[in-house]
Amino acid sequence: MDNIVFSIGITALAGALAAVAGAAENVESDIGSQGDPNSQVQLAPQMGYIHRIYNKAIAGEPPAWGLWIALGAGIAWAFMAMQINPILAIVLGAGLATFVQGVYSTTAYLGRTASLSKFGQPVYIDIIKSMTTVTMAHAFVAIFATVTLCHLMNAALGHPFPLPLLGLVWGIALGAAGSATGNPYYGKERQYQTQNFGAGVPISASGNIVRYAEAGERNSLDNGFFTAKLGGAAAGVCFGLIVFLELWRTVLFEKIGAGWGAIIVGVIIILVFTVIDRFIEVWARKNYGPYTKPEETSS
Amino acid sequence: MSALGGAKPAGGSTGIAPIPAIISLVIFVIIFALMYRLGTPLAMTALIGIVIGGLLIGFGVHFVPVGGAPAAMGQAPGIATGVAMLAAGGGLAGLFGGAWAASQGTLVAVVTGAIGGGLMLAITCFFVNFVYIYGMGIPAASGKVKKDPITGDTQPEYKSQGTEGHGLPFVSFVGGVIGGLLGGAGGTLIYLMLLDVYQATLPGVMKATAVQIAPVAVSLAGMFAIGIFLVIAVLAAYNITGTIEGPHDPKFKRFPRALIASAVASALCGVAAILLVMV
Amino acid sequence: MSVKIEVIEGGIPHQKILIAGLVLAVIGLYLSYLNVIVGTQIFAFFGGLAAIAALIWGSHTIKILASYGIGTGVPSAGMIAFGSGVIAFLFATKFGLYAPIVAIILAAVIGAILGYLANEVLAMHIPVMIKSLTEMAVVGALTLMGFSAMISGSFTFSALTTGSTKVLGMSLPSYQTSYIGGALIATVFLLGAIAIQHGFNACLGPGWKQDRMLMLTAECGFLSMMVAAVMSAALISPAAAILSFIIGLLGWYYTYMKYIELSKRDAAAWLDMKPIPEVEGH
Questions:
Q1: What's the ipTM?
Q2: Contacts of C178 in chain B (CB under 8 A)
Q3: Is C158 part of any domain?
Q4: What's the pTM?
């Protein structure tokens, strides 16, 4: 019984860490402008819209986060193998992984921007200086939280995978969940703030991203302020729920029915999410109604 | 042997060039013949399991609704990220669960892995719709079909001006969950098959006890499973050129040729993974 | 919505990069094998240099393949390269001294078959597909082998799976504290998979320049070498790990500065705290 209580505590802690990691991951990628919305930041100068937004094209979020987490986990593993205290080892691992993330960010911005010289997009050194550090801070939070939860899975819950392998698995999952949830909010709602609310961005408007702020020129930190409020929180809850429910159903119900208990609970959870999803889909159709098809041109 | 069964009807359907399909089949048979000559019955079973796992992954990727970059602007339906990596995110989360349940038998572990993948994608897909609806005020609409094949909801009038649709209509949501289930099951199956082989043979190869080699067996099987998973996911992503709306998308009909490619690729990678500890 | 990628002529021809990368990688791997011959671990850093040579070659291959627009983005190419490379690499480790040669041959076979599947069965019909996937699988296998040799001191199966732990001052053999037993290979897998694609992914666009891209890939390689050296401290002697780290650090500093210089050369303007230019220059 004590064992189960202990495991549930670890599960809750892992879920909480995952929520923090998901939120930090999303804000990091929005400030850095990583992932699919970055296609617009890349496109804008070609359409004549010179901007001061970061352009951190490292890879899609899932492989990039796979690397940061696996790297943090690998270094932490190595330090633990050298008999260093796990907490210190994880901090050092997350720190070094953050350094690598920062270097990759700067080279990605310089490379992409220099290749846009034909369209007159200048390299802004102050963007590198002020924004890279902020993304690194968020990256550190996300890496530390995720490596810690991987360590908990391995050391406290007894998962057979070694730490770096868990880092790879959960890093890719973190990037996948964070980018899936957060990208539309940053891509549509923030970059195309001037477009009609409650509708997708017309393809004809592509590249016309918002470049000016309430005062002065918009930079990526403004994007971070905005997306942290919904996109970041949603990504955090999303990744937190994934980790928490996955561990919870295993820890609590694995013993029931020789493993089938956890499976049945998993099926029930999937069905619950399906029903909620269907509910909000119908809710949106009813409340927002169809778009009137003819006339009304927006650009 | 379901691998051969899977490849057969594929040969007749449209979109498959017959000669490459036959050559693939020949490569496939050669790999199995090689395995039969060199390996033990255990290895043969493992290879069949790996091929089935590969087919599940290759098929599963076609279900995952991914819109790529346009989806991030609400210009196209689907999830706004890369298809290979989203499938990997779900599949590897499934592999995590499956590997945990490995001691409870192959069937339970594979189903656990499937549920893990399905759970990850169900939550992710739900949050995609949540952000679209409550964050951006945009209802879900498909660009490829007039009616949602599952719910019968009409789609075109919910598509905003100048876009191809947005969000995840119910059929895409279900597709995502199915994709996660198949990916998780496939990844776990590959892992379990390789783990069996390594646990049986590594003590002899490394002259150590089964307990001592356990971490090596787990890591090797895990790494091979991830490698095979990524190879097949990328191949399947090539097949749908990076984006798909789900099972109702016309591109979905291309899946037979992806099954051929998945079968050959998983057999090829699987044979190398097994022969590492044999011969 | 990605940029139209044009095939840019000029610069060093691909054939030269291919041969240089392959030869240097193999030489580097065999120099790291001096460890086994001399009975030391100090030559581990040659593995890292071999991996960097392979990565530079691989990034140029990715550039050629991606010029055709493969539809799934540049990073997926790195994933398939290392997914197939890791299989060839692990299989080859059992052949001891011949491991690099076996890895090259097996990776080439796997890559060629995957390329054939993609091109003919999946009907992609990209002229360079088979050749590119073959090259990339070889690059993946060589990169993994190079970093593995650097971290664990050697690229043989027994060296990769056996480590040692110190318990009360005594050194005991341990399989858990080994390169594969601890799954450090997962970290190296992603280090390589991101490094191989970053050079091209970060430099693509109308102003793409070959020297800048290759310099960036070398920078990614040395950066990976630095962190790999930190991880190697757990498995090889401190002196060897520190030597690898210092070489990685020096190489990284040089290539990073050089890369910034090249970016400065190619950028439209190099501004600090300046607003968006009033007159749009195009």
A1: 0.94
A2: 215-216
A3: yes
A4: 0.93
